[in-house]
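user: Kindly work through both lines:
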Amino acid sequence: MEHQKVLIVEGGSDRKRLQKVLAEPVEIICTNGTVSPYRIEEILLPYEDCELFVFLDADESGDKIRSLFKRYYPEATHLYTERTYRQVETTPYRVLAAVLLSENFEVHPEFLL
């Protein structure tokens, strides 16, 4: 069985935006902005054998959640949007595609132009 990729984002708008760019099936999990170590463990329990990617907003809330993931899931790969865009949902599609492509995600080619 192929190793499944799992993307962790903050909200549903982030998930919808990334789904448009992705050209492969990827499980996208929303933290809904607030998490604790217990909640992270609960969310990720079904995905313990998957490759984890954390793609959070470049703001205070995203930084807090990211630090928890770094502490409790150091094996997770962290993806970053530029601070000028602040949120994944406001990041241009071409920038999202470039970030995802850099971590070997398949993206729709029209977003690379």
About this structure: The chain has one domain: 5-104.
